[in-house]
Amino acid sequence: MNLTNRSVAVDRSPMTFSEKIYIPGILKGLKITLSHIFKKPATVRYPEETRPFSPVFRGLHVLNRDEEGREKCTACGLCALACPAEAITMEAAERLPGEEHLYREEKYAAKYEINMLRCIFCGNCEEACPKDAIYLSETVMPANYRRDYFVYKKEDMLITDEQVKAKRLKLQKA
Ligand code: SF4
Ligand code: SF4
């Protein structure tokens, strides 16, 4: 029984003379190629060019800091629990005296990693975070040939001063 109405029976009849010499088939293929030369290309020259993304596009993760530059993450683990891809791992540590300017809460993530090869960019980690410590940015994941490159560490994701400024500007305009 056919599952769809799109199945086509394989034609096993002997090849005709024109099929045996291949030239009509080659010309047919060339005609299709030539017809596309004058059309607007459907592709872009990524990464030099990018398409406009949807307003709800979710890209690379950013770990947030507060207004004083202190890390917001308290290593509570809720983001890892909410992650359907089990892409997040972390190790918590106690803040030591004198580190108040680095970490906002008494507990912080000494290690925080996201395996971007597992991540499906669903945004659940952002939704689950009670501290506004993680969000998905508009940056597209860069390609690479090495798998270990895709395990992003805390240092790779912590928000930079420029990103803080850009975020503030965006919030002011909104
Ligand atoms: S975006 Fe989704 S899949 Fe990716 S780390 Fe966050 S919760 Fe996991
Ligand atoms: S990012 Fe948010 S949810 Fe995840 S461990 Fe840090 S504070 Fe908790």
Structure description:
With 174 residues, the chain is an alpha+beta fold. It has a domain of 113 residues: 2-Layer Sandwich (Alpha-Beta Plaits), CATH 3.30.70.3270. It is 27% helix and 14% strand. The strands form 2 sheets. The chain has a 3-stranded antiparallel sheet. A two-stranded antiparallel sheet has the order 1-4. The protein is elongated. One iron/sulfur cluster binds next to helix 3.
**Largest sheet, described in full?**
3 strands, antiparallel
Figure out the total of helices. 6
Instruction: Summarize model confidence as the mean pLDDT.
Output: 91
What is the level 1 CATH name of the domain at 61-173?
Alpha Beta
Measured as a percent range, the helix fraction is: 25-40%
Given the C-alpha coordinates, what overall shape results? Answer: elongated
Adjacency order of strands in the biggest sheet: 2-3-5
CATH architecture of the domain at 61-173: 2-Layer Sandwich
H-E order = HHEHEEHEEHH
Number of strands: 5
Note the beta-strand portion: 5-15%
Span between termini: 57 Å
Low-confidence stretches: none
Bound chemical compounds: iron/sulfur cluster
Class computed from helices, strands and strand pairing? alpha+beta
In CATH, the topology of the domain at 61-173 is named: Alpha-Beta Plaits
